[in-house]
Amino acid sequence: GYAPFCKHLFIPNFAGVKCGYIAKTSEINSLIESCYEARKENELAVLIEYVSRDKIPPPDATFLDIILYSREQIILENEAMNSPAPETDAPWGIISVKGQTVDYELPMQPITMMRNALGKEYGGSGAPLDFDKYKDSVAFWSKHVAIK
Fold first, then answer.
1. Residue 62: CB partners within 8 Å, gap ≥ 6?
2. Cβ-based neighbour number of residue 33 at 10 Å
3. What rounded mean pLDDT belongs to the chain?
4. How many CB atoms lie within 10 A of CB 124?
5. In what order do the strands lie in the sheet with 6-12?
6. Per DSSP, what are the bridge partners of residue 42?
7. CA–CA separation, 60 vs 52, rounded Å?
8. With 80 as the cut, is the pLDDT of residue 2 above it?
């Protein structure tokens, strides 16, 4: 993961989950939209780009990237956003499941890295921005776009 409190589990896609991204092509580029979006009501909205799944059917994912955060990190982020603590003593919690075509960690989107660096009170994790990982993210997402 991008921080010590983050772990990734990769498993074959047994659930029919679709891929959450697609490579950019001239055809795809003409379908790209953008909007400001927050993942939760009290989170900072950020500018995202995406292709609507109404315009292009997402490909089947071959793997699921199950992203886990430590219980301690979840509690810290929930406190910063005035959300209740988890109702479990589990040491790890699932924060996201991403469909993808590879069994390794893909770069998170650059804007997500920036929001994380802003801090927990804005809906991020508080992890500092890693310049090299940010460059990797820009390289990947310059050639790919999310499907929403």
1. 12, 13, 100, 101, 102, 103
2. 12
3. 93
4. 20
5. 6-12, 63-70, 92-100
6. none
7. 16
8. no
Tokens found for residue 29:
């580029």
DSSP string covering 28-89, please? HHTT-EEEEE-SSTTSPPEEEEEE-TTTSPPPBPSEEEEEEEEHHHHHHHHHHTT-PPPSS-
Q: Name the token pair of 50.
A: 């995406």
pLDDT in tens, 50-80: 999 999 999 999 999 999 999 999 999 898 8
Could you tell me the two tokens for 109?
């989107």
Residue 68 forms beta bridges with which residues?
A: 7, 94
Complete edge-to-edge strand list for the sheet that includes strand 144-147? 21-23, 144-147, 46-51, 33-37
- Which of these, 5, 19, 3, lies nearest to 147 by C-alpha position? 19
CB 58 within 8 A of CB 91: no
Residue 83 · residue 120 · CB < 8 Å: no
Read off the pTM. 0.85
